[in-house]
Write a structure and sequence with these properties.
Helices cover 72% and strands 0% of the residues. The chain contains 17 helices and no strands. Helix 7 packs antiparallel against helix 8. The relative contact order is 0.13.
Length: 338
């Protein structure tokens, strides 16, 4: 499946192009590519990776800033990469997207996003060469996701595993030994927290695409078992995520933790649960957006709080990143899509 996904993108039916696709030498390509990356979701990878940087801070501020930038941007580049292989369902659920409209070519988006992910991997490898291995695993996971999404049991764990690698990559930026990194008692709960909390976003995110996934052969959990069954499965993941996050903070949190950060952590955890109350009565794809948006903001809040509780110096990043995700979500081009 990975080999099939990593081949050059093939055409899918969708709206006819309005004109020649813009090439990377054209500024219009980059404007369309930015929309494809969904900037409002970049704080997802930034917050998850920041937890690893908090566990083992890089040697210098410059190294930490470079690592955070690479982790932050990686989500958007990954979104663009996976979009190349999902234009069939996107043509129904998200016809505004540049790939579906033919504003950019699949091959160009594939090459540019893959090159960008490689650059992020190299940036992280400057801190620790072992990050190249994890970056490769993450890219393989992204390439495998689209075919695996066609099976209800495979898509969410594949996607969540990619995000769970981010805290490990962040940790390796400050810990040169992979053996000591694996032995760190904070690594497993950090990865589990990222895995299960992101699975909430994936599962609730499927609620907005049921009417598009069903006719295009994506047998996701809500397509196979219905929306409410999906919400219940997601809720289980939310409880495991909160338990993992609690263990992480209990093991590594600063003894004199800021009350503001504790409230932020509790708000993120509560929001993760509350998103399921919003999702429970969703009957149409168009009604799923509030629940999904709540899960995204809660994910970011939870992991920013984790990072700052582990390393209080990171508290200065909390407000800017939270403000970015909220403003960017409000400015997204399609309200029904997250």
């Amino acid at each position: 499946m990975i080999a099939a996904a990593s081949a050059a993108p093939v055409a899918h039916s969708g709206p006819a192009p309005t004109g020649p696709a813009a090439r990377p030498s054209d500024l219009r390509f980059w404007a369309a590519f930015l929309v494809t990356t969904r900037p409002y979701l970049m704080p997802v990878s930034g917050a998850a990776g920041l937890v690893g940087l908090a566990i083992a801070p890089p040697e210098s501020l410059a190294a930490g800033a470079l690592a955070f930038a690479a982790l932050f941007l990686s989500y958007g580049l990954g979104q663009a990469l996976t979009d190349v292989f999902q234009t069939d369902t996107d043509a129904r659920s998200a016809p505004y997207r540049p790939l579906v409209r033919g504003l950019v070519a699949r091959r160009d988006v594939f090459v540019v996003s893959l090159a960008g992910l490689l650059a992020c991997g190299v940036a992280l490898a400057l801190a620790n060469p072992w990050n190249l291995l994890l970056a490769l695993l993450a890219v393989l996971g992204l390439l495998a996701y689209s075919p695996l999404k066609r099976r209800f049991w495979a898509g969410p764990p594949c996607n969540s595993a990619v995000v769970a690698l981010l805290p490990a990559m962040g940790l390796l930026c400050g810990e040169p030994s992979p053996v000591r990194a694996l032995e760190n008692p904070l690594l497993l709960p950090a990865m589990a927290s990222a895995f299960f909390s992101y699975a909430v976003f994936v599962l609730l995110g499927y609620l907005k695409d049921v009417e598009a996934d069903r006719p295009t052969g994506y047998v996701t959990l809500p397509v196979r078992f219905g929306r409410r069954a999906t919400v219940l499965v997601s809720l289980v993941h939310a409880f495991v995520a909160i338990a993992s996050s609690s263990l992480l903070v209990a093991r590594g949190g600063a003894a004199d933790a800021s009350l503001v950060l504790l409230v932020l952590w509790a708000t993120g955890a509560a929001g993760l649960l509350a998103s399921h109350a919003l999702a429970w009565n969703v009957r149409r794809d168009a009604d799923a957006s509030p629940a999904i948006t709540a899960s995204v903001v809660s994910f970011v809040a939870l992991h920013l709080a984790e990072a700052a509780l582990l390393l209080p110096a990171l508290e200065r990043l909390v407000l800017p990143v939270l403000a970015f995700v909220v403003v960017a979500l409000l400015a997204r081009p399609c309200r029904e899509q997250v």
